[in-house]
Amino acid sequence: DAKTTQPTSMDCAEGRAANLPCNHSTISGNEYVYWYRQIHSQGPQYIIHGLKNNETNEMASLIITEDRKSSTLILPHATLRDTAVYYCIVLIQGAQKLVFGQGTRLTINP
Amino acid sequence: KAGVTQTPRYLIKTRGQQVTLSCSPISGHRSVSWYQQTPGQGLQFLFEYFSETQRNKGNFPGRFSGRQFSNSRSEMNVSTLELGDSALYLCASSLLVNANEQFFGPGTRLTVL
User: Fold this and answer.
1) Closest Cβ opposite residue B56 in set A42, A91, A97
2) How does residue B1 score in pLDDT terms, banded at 50, 70 and 90?
């Protein structure tokens, strides 16, 4: 079900912007791009989602390419607490269930 | 606003026993979904309840069941536990059924010996 490709792991220095890429080349017109993260020993946490326009909230920004085949999640000023596994998923609205792939393990280094 | 709470946080059982897990959704949320997470299988959907009715169901055996109460709190039951049931069981709440924006609790870590 997971139709996305993400790097297995990434590192980022504390205070820097963390840019997490995601490829979803087979995305269809009615599918949204969602991002969740899971900090160790906690439940997944919703971050942001978008259809085709760039989105920003208090946690992150989501940049979706014009052809919608890839996107980038940006954490503008990463902190140690942002160390987590980040999941990029594509879903239609009302998809009934979330399906996570392997995600990207992001490590923020001091 | 308080988040999703799950009890207990940790549980150890033996094969053949049964277990009941509890979830209290965010106030005002009427949908509760349950997921099983294991290192090998990742996150797998169990079922979703909305207004005390099961609305969606994943591909799990009948040993896994659930219910939702009028205050939206939900319980999940697993009977005749097997070693493979050891997992993190996550509850997520949302305002509406089939919502993609879900708010997860911390999970219940179940170990079956």
Assistant:
1) A97
2) low
Residue of B nearest to A103 (CA): B42
What pLDDT does residue B98 have?
A: 79
How high is the mean pLDDT of chain B? 94
Q: Judging by beta carbons within 10 Å of its beta carbon (0-12, 13-18, 19+), is residue B14 exposed, middle or buried?
A: exposed
Does the beta-carbon distance from A32 to B100 stay under 8 Å? yes
How close is the nearest chain B Cα to the Cα of A91, in Å?
A: 8
Q: Are B104 and A43 inside 8 Å of each other by CB?
A: yes
**Model confidence band, residue B7 (pLDDT cutoffs 50, 70, 90):** very high
Q: Does the pLDDT at position A79 exceed 50?
A: yes
What distance in Å separates the CA atoms of residue B27 and residue B15, rounded to the nearest whole number?
Answer: 35
Judged by CB atoms closer than 8 Å, whether chains meet at B104 and A102 is answered as no
Cα torsion A76, A78, A84, A88 to 10°: value is 10
